[in-house]
Specification:
Oligomer: single chain
Radius of gyration: 29 Å
Largest sheet: 6 strands, antiparallel
Number of helices: 10
Shape: elongated
Helix content: 40-55%
Strand order of the largest sheet: 1-2-11-10-7-8
Number of strands: 11
């Protein structure tokens, strides 16, 4: 276990140790009150709650120990009040022993299930970290920053993706979001990123590149050798993506948007949307919606910042169900560059959702640097 995970493991045990005081205090309270109560009052059945509560947060060993402590407390009560062979206390002891055993079995099953879920998420996270390589901070005349925010631990990992590639005349950038979650989504993201990295520098035209990406995604969805997935779910699989081509020597960017949230353009304290007049359908759906994959040009001058993001950002909700107002939160925050902008957005987004994202979220900020004089 690496040091970081060891530290997290220690921190996760501290709340459980604190919770352990609850069933122990319950046993002590019931024991004292039961001994002092009138002869017609029996509080022993309440001791069953101690191992039952413990099983909800602790492992089988701890649950068994608490159950044994509860049984011991019942023995003490029986000995003080009457005797162990008293019929009432005998049945209470038998019931308590059986319920403690059931609680211990439940705790063992819960702990095994939690361990399996943790391992599955670790595998998915490791796979995604391999697929989603960090973007360089400088590419040609561009300064780039990126951030990936994983969803809360209870949620499955998603298929958000981004990548950048250099060409002879500029830089190409893609951001996307795979429909679905889990390892299947990570696999689809890996497929698209591999195709992008392979073809970005070979396809001279941006439309040809996106056509190639569409063909790659569609052929994978129709592959009869693909893993056995429900046909209905596979038929609804697609990837939203925004693909940019930013020339080195022109103050412009070319964009093809395939069903993805439109990027923002930050210029002189103002915020605008890079909305294409002819948006394309998500990758994998062109057989249902025929369209021309035509790139549209937008002015992208020195000092401008283009902000790309996935729907996990704009669909993040606070406790009242209000969506995160991304366009409002970036106003006046671009002056210090992409890194400072994303640092602000990351902190502000987590504050908005209360540190609990329901879906993975990714952002990429791209600034065109002034030409050296």
């Amino acid at each position: 276990m690496v040091p970081g995970r060891l530290k997290a493991h220690r921190l996760s045990r501290e709340p459980r140790l604190a919770l352990l005081a609850v069933p122990i205090a319950l046993i002590m309270l019931v024991t004292v009150v039961d001994i002092l109560a009138p002869s017609g009052v029996h509080l022993g059945p309440f001791l069953v709650a101690a191992p039952a509560v413990t099983a909800s947060f602790a492992g089988p060993r701890t649950t068994a120990c608490v159950g044994a402590l509860a049984v011991l407390a019942q023995v003490v009560v029986a000995t003080v009040r009457t005797s162990l062979v008293d019929l009432n206390h005998t049945f209470q002891l038998i019931t308590l022993i059986l319920m403690s055993a059931f609680a211990t079995v439940f705790a063992a099953r819960r702990e095994r299930r939690e361990r399996q879920l943790t391992q599955l998420r670790s595998v998915a996270t490791a796979a995604q970290e391999v697929v989603l390589k960090p973007l360089p901070q400088r590419i040609g005349p561009l300064r780039i920053a990126s951030v990936y925010l994983a969803a809360q631990s209870e949620a499955q990992i998603g298929g958000d993706l981004y990548a950048a590639a250099r060409t002879e005349r500029g830089t190409r950038i893609i951001i996307g979001d795979v429909r679905g979650k889990g390892l299947e989504a990570v696999g689809d993201a890996a497929l698209l990123l591999g195709a992008f990295r392979s073809a970005a520098h070979r396809q001279a035209d941006l439309s040809a590149l996106v056509t190639f990406l569409e063909g790659t995604v569609s052929s994978d969805l129709d592959d009869p050798a693909a893993p056995d997935v429900e046909s209905e779910d596979r038929g609804e699989a697609f990837i939203t993506a925004a693909v940019m081509d930013i020339p080195d020597d022109e103050p412009v960017l070319h964009l093809i948007n395939c069903g993805h949230p439109p990027p923002l353009l930050l210029r002189h304290g103002q915020v605008g949307l890079l909305e294409t007049r002819q948006p394309a359908p998500p990758l994998g759906l062109t057989e249902f919606v025929r369209t021309d994959l035509t790139a549209e040009a937008f002015a992208f001058e020195p000092g401008d910042i283009a902000l790309l993001y996935t729907d996990g950002v704009i669909e993040a909700r606070d406790r009242d169900g209000t969506f995160y107002p991304l366009a409002e939160r970036v106003i006046g925050k671009a002056a210090k560059g992409p890194d400072a902008l994303l640092a602000h957005l990351r902190k502000d987004l987590m504050r908005h959702v209360g540190d609990h994202l329901g879906d993975d979220a990714a952002m990429v900020a791209i600034e065109r640097m002034p030409r050296p004089s």
